[in-house]
Amino acid sequence: MNDANNHVFIYGTLKRGYRNHKDYLKFEKYLGEYRTVDCYPLVIANEWYAPVLLQEKGIGHQVVGELYSVDDIKLTELDKLERTHHIRGYKRILIAIQNIINDEYVEAYTYMNERKNLKHVGSEYMPKYTDSRYIPLNER
Q: Is the CB of residue 16 less than 8 Å from the CB of residue 66?
């Protein structure tokens, strides 16, 4: 069995209370609420209302999300969900994040995409994902 030693920063539908959490992270170790050290644009995109963190460092807000510790098998599952193998899929990127409570800094993987891969952006830049309109892959 692999040790859960990969930190993953979750900002969208994988967070607790959202559509993908129960299928992917329900049994993973939750480490707390964190925010990105740098600003990034978090938007709702395309006809499925998907949250997307854009690879545009220095624009937008410090984004608030959740930190999890996962093993290599779970990380591979998340890569598949985020379609990292696809040309227009998300990319797993290592970023600096900061604990909301005690300001502890950690490096963690997160999933980002590029604006050119989106059909359209349907929101302003958001500091935190709270939208509930997301349509999961199996319902599209």
A: yes
Q: What one-character-per-residue DSSP string does the chain give?
A: -----EEEEE-STTSTTSTTHHHHTTTSEEEEEEEEEEEE-EEEETTTTEEEEBS-TTSSEEEEEEEEEE-HHHHHHHHHHTTTTSTTS-EEEEEEEEETTT--EEEEEEEEB-GGG-S-B-S---SB--------GGG-
Query: Looking at residues 8-36, what average pLDDT do you find?
Result: 97
Q: Give the mean model confidence (pLDDT) for residues 44-66.
A: 96
Q: Which residues are catalytic?
A: 82
Residue with tokens 């609420």: 33
Q: What is the gyration radius of the CA atoms in the chain, in angstroms? A: 14
Global pTM? 0.94
